[in-house]
């Protein structure tokens, strides 16, 4: 039986972007393939690792795949350029109900932060393409959290420190579509770690990596965080 005290009701919500609030139609894989080819590499053998580490800081993925720092940075730059071109071509859209969900969460008095594993330039390109500047209270990328992205807890904890929206990590809810989103939320001590089924990973994988709840989409989050629902969580 859960004995979570009432004063841990969620005050801060940290939302992932691609796959959670943003539908990118496979842009991450396409941009990765372009980056690998720019370095003279065949992307096919690497795609399994890319899929497994969705949600992680992209530079960390490239460091793992390409070894030395110089090649990793070249690959990351090529990725950012390719992703920006795909975004500019219109291959990105908000997931149904995502903007409305953010609006509803903020209207309920909660603080909302959009976090990503992308670099700031890529995150800004997505925000501009969607017209989402100012939609959330704060946006964060790994560089804003000292350079470490997911699965480390840093993005979630940075959101808490920057906004000062909560007094207890249990007053934080995290939502994302990847195992690394779940690990990040769990390691930060978030009271709710919600997986969504609109992106990279399935229910079993999300649950295995720390999801306290699994939702069909982020549009279901306001109902989960409603006062009556939280009281019985």
Give a brief rundown of this model.
This protein has helices at 27-38, 47-52, 58-66, 69-88, 98-107, 120-130, 154-163, 179-188, 203-208, 221-224, 227-231; strands at 12-16, 22-23, 93-94, 111-115, 138-140, 172-176, 192-196, 213-215.
Explain this structure to me?
GO terms for molecular function: phosphoglycolate phosphatase activity. InterPro entries: HAD-like_hydrolase_sf, HAD-like_sf, HAD_sf, PhnX-like. One of its GO terms (biological process) is DNA repair. With 233 residues, the protein is of the alpha/beta class. It has two domains: 6-24 and 93-231, 3-Layer(aba) Sandwich (Rossmann fold), CATH 3.40.50; 27-88. Helix content is 44%, strand content 13%. It has helices at 27-38, 47-52, 58-66, 69-88, 98-107, 120-130, 154-163, 179-188, 203-208, 221-224, 227-231, and strands at residues 12-16, 22-23, 93-94, 111-115, 138-140, 172-176, 192-196, 213-215. It has a six-stranded parallel β-sheet with strand order 5-4-1-6-7-8. Strands 2-3 form a two-stranded antiparallel sheet. α3 packs across α4. The longest helix has 20 residues, at 69-88. The chain is globular. The N and C termini lie close together (10 Å). The relative contact order is 0.18.
């Amino acid at each position: 039986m859960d004995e979570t005290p009432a004063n841990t009701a969620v005050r801060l919500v940290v939302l992932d972007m691609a796959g959670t609030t943003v539908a990118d139609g496979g842009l991450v894989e396409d941009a990765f393939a372009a980056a690998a080819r720019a370095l003279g590499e065949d992307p096919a053998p690497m795609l399994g690792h890319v899929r497994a580490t969705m949600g992680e800081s992209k530079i960390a993925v490239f460091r793992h795949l390409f070894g030395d720092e110089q090649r990793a940075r070249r690959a990351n730059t090529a990725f950012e350029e390719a992703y920006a071109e795909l975004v500019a071509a219109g291959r990105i859209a908000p997931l149904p109900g995502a903007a409305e969900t953010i609006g509803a969460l903020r209207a309920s008095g909660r603080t909302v932060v959009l976090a990503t594993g992308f670099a700031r330039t890529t995150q800004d390109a997505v925000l501009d393409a969607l017209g989402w500047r100012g939609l959330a209270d704060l946006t964060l990328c790994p560089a804003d959290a000292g350079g470490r992205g997911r699965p480390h807890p840093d993005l979630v904890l940075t959101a808490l420190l920057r906004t000062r929206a909560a007094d207890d990590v249990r007053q934080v809810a995290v939502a994302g579509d990847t195992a690394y989103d779940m690990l990040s939320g769990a390691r930060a001590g978030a009271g709710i770690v919600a997986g969504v089924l609109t992106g990279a990973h399935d229910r079993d994988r999300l649950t295995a990596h720390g999801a306290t709840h699994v939702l069909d989409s982020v549009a279901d989050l306001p109902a989960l965080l409603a006062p009556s629902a939280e009281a019985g969580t």
